[in-house]
Design a protein that fits this description.
It is a single chain. This protein is an alpha/beta fold. It has two domains: 95 residues; 71 residues. Helices cover 42% and strands 28% of the residues. It contains five helices and seven strands; from the N terminus they run H-E-H-H-E-E-E-H-E-H-E-E. Strand 3 and strand 4 form a beta hairpin. The longest helix is centred in the middle third of the chain and has 22 residues.
């Protein structure tokens, strides 16, 4: 578990160094170590570390020399950030595709809706009608069902800004 924590810390550091917000999902992260036992232990927790670092995939590799800033493309990334520590080398694919951008924007919208719900002291089970800013129309068009599920929204409608109305509880 200690290796999982360390790799997650390095992944977050790489994300911070690249200036990418935590809610923005990324395609992949690579983690490499010389010690096969440590790699195996991390591989068993790869899904957990990937979720913690908000990446779709975590690949555990050997040895750390397989990727560096100069040879990043050999690791399958076009752009990225590398951090090292405690024998680990961690590379984060920082390419944000249009689909990843939409997902990140959807997560931000969900956070803003939930914050508004909290600020209004609404019950956790309250069903709501959401009015979203028109500049978020592409996000809602692509991921509206997921946004509605996450926020218990009965409807999502474009408008001048973000607002919500209570429509009952379940």
């Amino acid at each position: 578990m200690e290796d999982a924590r360390r790799v997650a810390e390095l992944g977050r550091a790489a994300r911070s160094s690249a200036g990418i917000r935590r809610r923005q999902p990324l395609r992949a992260m690579l983690a490499a170590h010389q010690d096969a036992g440590r790699r195996d232990r991390l591989a068993g927790l790869a899904d957990l570390v990937a979720r913690e670092c908000n990446v779709m995939e975590l690949h555990v590799l050997a040895p750390p020399g397989e990727f560096t800033r100069a040879g990043f493309s050999t690791a399958g990334f076009t752009t990225g950030e590398v951090t090292t520590g405690d024998g680990w080398a961690v590379a984060l694919d920082t390419t944000i595709t249009p689909a990843l951008d939409l997902e990140g924007r959807a997560r931000d919208l969900v956070r803003r809706i939930q914050r508004l719900r909290k600020d209004r002291d609404l019950a956790v089970t309250a069903r709501i009608d959401v009015t979203f800013p028109e500049d978020e129309a592409a996000v809602v068009a692509a991921l509206g069902p997921w946004i509605a599920q996450q926020t218990l929204a009965r409807s999502l409608s474009p408008g001048a800004g973000l607002d919500l109305a209570v429509t009952g509880t379940e």
